[in-house]
């Protein structure tokens, strides 16, 4: 199984632990990833907040490049990127005039481009049965709170993935790995997203609620599939503990960390030792 | 030759202001076939009508043209006038020189010329008119009422009390519908069963009402006055003639825990059960999907216990044929299913409310059963999860209604009222409890309704927040309800013990299939279509079939009862004479030239054309032909358009008549 | 949140765009998309917030209290314009510099300074950021986006 790979700025920046984790994990599962050459930033929050044309153009250029490089499908492990790509795809699909305009704007032929997948969809492709069969060390001590964040499941008309209110796709993967995901209430509540630099109080408040609810429902860790959520819940966990006056000590795993560990890979190989909150203690 | 009389009306100034009536009279007197041309200020008045009658006699007229207003106004008037003078009423034509001429033009010369043209066409047509006779259709003066809720019961009683027999069909084991399950009704807080059960008993015992309970309408054939209905009497596995309703069978049945349909899952019932204590008929039915005897020949305890020997495991469905002259549809409603599973792809349910996930999130009918004195908790409001009495209850309006994105676009009308009622019932039971209502608008338009809602707020202390609820989650046994109050502009979070969702009202299951069997229309929401929303709210476009109650649109009990009586009165009108008289302007097929291609049979929207045979006196088959059923044809003319051999024609609007009008103009 | 989204939309319905543009709610909004997902009338509220932000930015009328968000996002876009991909150190330097320049808050300058060391220890800090090879095309895309009607 091979996919085009669109890392996005976070995975090549301070969330390179996510890239390490997914490369190591997917390689072990026989999934090939080929990075799209000359990919540009998708624009993230800044583009859709400040400049509408840019917010369509930047993702569109990436779709055009991927398509020209012969990819039929591509993985975008960051939900902001995948959502922006899917949104741009939808916009040009229904508007031939826009398609022409954007194509000349980004100097590449935009025609809808390859199918964009998020990380959980890759595991759905591999198949839960195949995943279960590949498990070496069932994660029976893990009681994860599966945290989806916002953009994996919203807006449902754009991402068309799982259920926007009560998603279960990540839990399904975790159960196939032998873990016991907890039932909790903040699966799809926002962590504060890109406000981490400009408005850290927002992040402390919102992410604080997420950690508190996970702990209250008996979770001993969180599992995420978004680099921004990871930063807010892991890197900022110490600050959150100070802000709320509560100790959490909840490690935050990428979904590929969990799968990798179940396959028998070490936290070192997966890059999970580079997190701020490591199991049981803070680094 | 023809002796046509032309009568031109001034209509006061309405026509005469624009059309030069005198000039028109002069011109029309010279038209071929016209014997005399007269005018009068108000042709529809008594002197005007007298003028027409006098001229018919004096000039021995054989056809009349009245040039005046639209036929919608006075066609019937003038037909009666000429009939009184001894002329066939269908030898009258109206030339509309008001709505089609004087009211839409300003230039006097041109308008006058046009008026003359219109009259010329009418004269040409009337010369080809046939003298038609009204069609008489025999009437079976018995009515079928489908649905035994409050509307069906009311209609059945009214028709029966008028002296006609009624066949009442109800698919549940007992009549009473949703109203039998309600606790108290707005705006009086009358106990629902107390006011309904006397009617139920009356309907069950009425000498002219034949009740088929636990039965469904399987097929309907025929037309107004002459319907043949096939009713499927589902097997009860209990012989109701022997059964005394003692209830011993239910007591001994070992399969006690089946979710009760009547309690909407809030309580349990055994496999053999009477749905509720006040059921009519008060006879049990066996649930064949769970009964051990029926499934694998086990148990059989009820049969052993039954003293009169009324249990009959060999019972079968029975098909019964009834002949009726009119049908009243009163199939009622069901609630929107709030969970994810929906009957159509357009609906999406409300995952954010946790209905189906959290036991203490229920819908309004479930709440009614919990507070009902004869309900599964004997009227004590107990939480489904742990049986505790809730101290904080949140009521949410508009769940499924007024939602273009994932529900139904319309307003369900009754929820604002019953939500206020629920807060009051709650307060009357739990004196220091607090009710919270999240609403978008309050619709309280009936008699005493606004005052009723104010009572809930001002006297019984219900807290009303103007805003929707975003999400419901459960923490430590409490339901955290996150909503907003847009008037204050703040978020509002309530930690509730119980949440009641006012789910949208939808037509009952199976109504679309039933409508197709009856050949009546329904809209995109499944509500049955009335003939005209303002002036004919209980008739349908199929003669002889009437609708009433919530199956036509969301409505409350007073409106359902009123509509039911209205439908009954329409039935009484239908039955007023032993024969029905229909307008003869319907299709007719020339059986000599008909090629029996049956294109008309397939196209007729009223299924009014039959395949027939023409036989010789000795019975030998001469040919096949299409034949119009005079009781059903509505005169739409579709068959005329599709007939390849020009055998179909429309009386009163024959091809000859229409072509003559065109030729006269050209 | 001074003006909740319901009120912002109501102001727009009434034609009072000016008051809506001055609200600081539009900068507090985290674009979580929950509003658009839930709206029974399918109003794309998140897109309305985007549009308000874009308009406010163009007119330079962003509410003072939330200027940091604007400064950050503007610095982010300039960074992309120059490099094609995000250079985090450059972004933080630009952001902190700009905010300091406006408000002279020394504590702000050193806020999160400790994190730099932590990130470095974990090999998450990249002193030399990534760039695309063809940076000209990125510049041109930005120029065209600025020039076109928005």
State the end-to-end CA separation of chain C. 27 Å
Low-confidence parts of chain A, pLDDT < 50 over ≥5 residues? none
Q: How much strand content do the residues of chain A show?
A: 5-15%
Average pLDDT number of chain A: 94
**Helix content bin of chain A:** 40-55%
Number of domains of chain C: 2
Radius of gyration of chain A: 19 Å
Detailed description of the structure:
The complex is a heterotrimer of chains A (283), B (666) and C (150). With 283 residues, chain A is α/β, with parallel strands linked by helices. Chain A is 49% helix and 10% strand. Chain A contains 15 helices and nine strands. Chain A has helices at residues 9-12, 16-28, 44-50, 52-68, 79-93, 96-106, 119-126, 128-134, 156-159, 169-176, 200-216, 227-235, 237-244, 255-262, 267-270; strands at residues 2-5, 32-35, 73-75, 115-117, 144-146, 221-224, 252-254, 277-278, 281-282. In chain A, helix 3 (44-50) packs across helix 4, helix 4 (52-68) crosses helix 6 and helix 7 (119-126) packs across helix 8. The longest helix of chain A has 17 residues, at 52-68. Chain B has 666 residues and is of the alpha/beta class. Helices cover 28% and strands 25% of the residues of chain B. In chain B, strands 10-7-6-18-29 form a five-stranded parallel sheet. The longest helix of chain B is centred in the first third of the chain and has 21 residues, at 108-128. Chain C is an all-alpha fold and 150 residues long. Chain C has ten helices and no strands. Chain C has helices spanning 5-13, 17-22, 25-28, 34-38, 45-59, 67-83, 88-103, 106-110, 113-121, 135-147. In chain C, helix 6 packs antiparallel against helix 7. The chains are: A alpha/beta (283), B alpha/beta (666), C mainly alpha (150). Chains in contact: A-B, A-C, B-C. The interface between A and C is large, with 53 and 57 residues.
């Amino acid at each position: 199984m091979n996919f085009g790979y669109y890392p996005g700025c976070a995975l090549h920046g301070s969330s390179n632990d996510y890239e390490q984790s997914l490369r190591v994990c997917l390689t072990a599962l026989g999934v090939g990833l080929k990075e799209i050459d000359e990919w540009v930033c998708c624009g993230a929050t800044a583009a859709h907040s400040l400049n509408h044309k840019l917010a369509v153009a930047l993702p569109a250029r990436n779709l055009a490049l991927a398509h020209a490089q012969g990819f039929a499908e591509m993985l975008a492990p960051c939900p902001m990127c995948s959502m922006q790509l899917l949104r741009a795809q939808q916009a040009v699909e229904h508007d031939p005039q826009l398609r022409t305009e954007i194509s000349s704007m980004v100097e590449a032929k935009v025609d809808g481009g390859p199918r964009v997948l998020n990380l959980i969809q890759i595991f759905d492709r591999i198949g839960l049965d195949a995943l279960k069969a590949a498990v070496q060390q069932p994660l029976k001590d893990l009681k994860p709170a599966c945290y989806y964040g916002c953009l994996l499941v919203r807006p449902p008309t754009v991402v068309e993935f799982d259920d926007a209110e009560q998603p279960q796709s990540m839990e399904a993967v975790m159960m196939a790995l032998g873990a016991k995901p907890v039932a909790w209430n903040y699966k799809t509540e926002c962590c504060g997203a890109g406000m981490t630099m400009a408005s850290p109080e927002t992040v402390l408040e919102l992410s604080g609620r997420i950690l508190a609810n996970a702990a209250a429902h008996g979770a001993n860790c969180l599992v995420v599939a978004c680099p921004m959520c990871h930063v807010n819940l892991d890197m900022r966990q110490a600050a959150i503990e100070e802000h709320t006056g509560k100790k959490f000590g909840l490690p935050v795993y990428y979904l590929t960390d969990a799968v990798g560990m179940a396959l028998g890979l070490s936290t070192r190989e997966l890059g999970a030792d580079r997190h701020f909150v490591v199991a049981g203690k803070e680094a | 030759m023809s002796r046509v009389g032309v009568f031109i009306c001034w209509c006061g100034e309405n026509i005469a202001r624009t059309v030069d009536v005198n000039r028109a009279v002069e011109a029309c007197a010279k038209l071929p076939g016209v014997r005399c041309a007269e005018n009068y200020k108000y042709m529809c008045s008594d002197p005007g009508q007298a003028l027409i009658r006098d001229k018919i006699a004096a000039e021995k007229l054989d056809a009349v043209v009245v040039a005046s207003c639209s036929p919608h106004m006075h066609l019937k008037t003038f037909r009666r006038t000429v009939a009184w003078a001894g002329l066939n009423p269908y030898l009258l034509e109206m030339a509309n020189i008001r709505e089609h001429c004087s009211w839409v033009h300003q230039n006097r010369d041109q308008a006058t010329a046009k008026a003359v043209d219109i009259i010329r066409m009418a004269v040409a047509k009337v010369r080809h008119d046939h003298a038609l006779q009204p069609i008489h259709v025999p009437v079976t003066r018995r009515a079928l009422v489908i649905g035994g809720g409050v509307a069906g019961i009311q209609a059945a009683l009214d028709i029966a009390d008028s002296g006609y027999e009624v066949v009442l069909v109800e698919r549940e084991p007992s009549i009473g519908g949703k109203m039998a399950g309600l606790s108290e009704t707005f705006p009086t807080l009358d106990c629902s069963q107390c006011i309904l059960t006397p009617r139920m008993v009356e309907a069950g015992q009425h000498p002219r009402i034949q009740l088929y309970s636990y039965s469904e309408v399987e097929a309907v054939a025929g037309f107004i006055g002459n319907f043949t209905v096939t009713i499927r009497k589902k097997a009860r596995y209990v012989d109701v003639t022997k059964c005394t309703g003692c209830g011993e069978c239910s007591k001994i049945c070992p399969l006690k825990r089946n979710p009760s349909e009547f309690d909407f899952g809030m309580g349990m019932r055994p496999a053999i059960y009477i749905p509720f204590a006040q059921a009519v008929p008060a006879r049990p039915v066996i649930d064949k999907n769970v009964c051990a005897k029926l499934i694998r020949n086990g148990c059989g305890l009820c049969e052993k216990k039954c003293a009169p020997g009324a249990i009959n495991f060999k019972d079968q469905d029975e098909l019964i044929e009834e002949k009726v002259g009119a049908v009243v549809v009163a199939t009622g409603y069901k609630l929107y299913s709030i969970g994810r599973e929906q009957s159509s792809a357009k609906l999406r349910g409300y995952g954010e409310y946790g209905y189906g996930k959290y036991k203490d999130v229920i819908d309004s009918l479930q709440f009614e059963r919990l507070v009902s004195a004869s309900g599964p908790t004997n009227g004590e409001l107990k939480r489904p999860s742990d049986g505790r009495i809730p101290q904080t209850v949140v009521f949410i309006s508009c769940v499924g209604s007024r939602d273009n994105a994932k529900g139904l676009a319309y307003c369900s009308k009754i929820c604002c009222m019953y939500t206020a009622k629920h807060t009051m019932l709650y307060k009357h039971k739990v004196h220091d409890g607090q009710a919270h209502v999240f609403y978008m608008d309050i619709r309280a338009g009936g008699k005493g309704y606004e005052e009723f809602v104010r009572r809930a707020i001002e006297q019984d202390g219900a807290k009303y927040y103007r805003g929707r609820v975003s999400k419901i989650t459960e923490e430590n046994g409490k339901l955290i309800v996150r909503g907003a109050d847009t008037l204050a502009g703040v978020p509002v979070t309530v930690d509730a013990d119980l949440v009641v969702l006012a789910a949208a009202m939808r037509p009952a299951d199976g109504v679309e299939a039933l409508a197709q069997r009856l050949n009546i229309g329904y809209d995109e929401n499944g509500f049955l279509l009335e003939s005209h929303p303002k002036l004919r709210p209980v008739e349908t476009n199929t003669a002889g079939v009437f609708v009433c109650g919530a199956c036509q649109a969301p409505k409350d009990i007073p409106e359902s009862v009123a509509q039911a009586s209205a439908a009954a009165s329409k039935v009484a009108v239908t039955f007023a004479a032993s024969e029905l008289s229909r307008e003869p302007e319907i299709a007719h097929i020339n059986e000599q030239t008909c090629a029996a291609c049956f294109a008309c049979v397939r196209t007729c929207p009223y299924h009014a054309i039959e395949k027939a045979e023409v036989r010789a006196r000795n019975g030998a088959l001469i040919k096949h032909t299409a034949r119009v059923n005079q009781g059903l044809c509505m005169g739409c003319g579709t068959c005329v358009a599709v007939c390849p051999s020009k055998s179909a024609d429309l009386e009163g609007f024959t091809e000859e008549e229409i072509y003559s009008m065109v030729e006269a103009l050209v | 949140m001074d003006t909740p989204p319901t009120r912002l939309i109501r102001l727009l319905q009434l034609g009072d765009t000016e008051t809506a543009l001055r609200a600081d709610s539009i900068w507090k909004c985290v674009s979580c998309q929950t509003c658009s997902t839930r709206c029974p009338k399918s109003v794309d509220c998140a897109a309305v917030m985007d549009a308000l932000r874009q308009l406010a930015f163009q007119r330079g009328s962003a509410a003072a209290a939330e200027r940091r968000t604007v400064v950050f996002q503007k610095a982010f876009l300039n960074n992309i314009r120059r490099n094609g991909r995000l250079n985090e150190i450059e972004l933080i330097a630009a952001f902190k510099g700009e905010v300091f320049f406006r408000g002279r808050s020394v504590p702000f300058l050193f806020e999160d300074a400790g994190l730099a060391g932590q990130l470095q220890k974990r090999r998450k800090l990249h002193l030399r950021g990534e760039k695309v090879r063809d940076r000209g095309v990125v510049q041109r895309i930005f120029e065209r986006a600025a020039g076109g009607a928005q």
